[in-house]
Specification:
- It is a single chain.
- By secondary structure, this protein is mainly beta.
- It has no helices and 11 strands.
- The strands form 2 sheets. Strands 2, 4, 5, 6, 9, 10 and 11 form a 7-stranded mixed beta sheet that branches. Strands 1-3-8-7 form a 4-stranded antiparallel beta sheet, with no helix packed on it.
């Protein structure tokens, strides 16, 4: 049973930055497509960014160059650096692992192993 544990959320002012981390217990982490997702109150969960084992990244349009997803395969850690935050970025942020061997879509239904999430609040 793979566990994903997010950390690093908090409250910041608009224009500020946060760095989210996700620790994985999966032995095959280095080969796994990983992603960050978020869900605001009353809204659907949406994909933020994904990264494959080789480091190829895909971002949601709303990221607009403000966020950077990265991974440390040796430490089995996924990271999301978020800069220039706006109130619209306020949400619970989750990391997840893609269930199959692909890594081309931000569709959350293709992902699983959801952690407990970490809250990001921008005012």
């Amino acid at each position: 049973h793979v566990q994903l544990v997010e950390s690093g959320g908090g409250s910041v002012q608009a224009g500020g930055s946060l760095r989210l981390s996700c620790a994985s217990s999966e032995p095959a982490f280095s080969r796994r497509c990983m992603g960050w997702f978020r869900q605001a109150p009353g809204k659907e969960r949406e994909g933020v960014a994904i990264i494959d084992g080789a480091g190829r990244r895909t971002y949601a349009d709303f990221v607009s160059g403000r966020f950077t997803i990265s991974r440390d395969n040796a430490r089995k850690t996924l990271t999301l650096q978020m800069d220039k935050l706006t109130p619209e970025d306020t949400a619970m942020y989750y990391c997840a692992r893609r269930r199959d061997g692909y890594c081309y879509s931000l569709e959350s239904l293709a992902f699983g192993g959801w952690g407990q999430g970490t809250q990001v609040t921008v005012s």
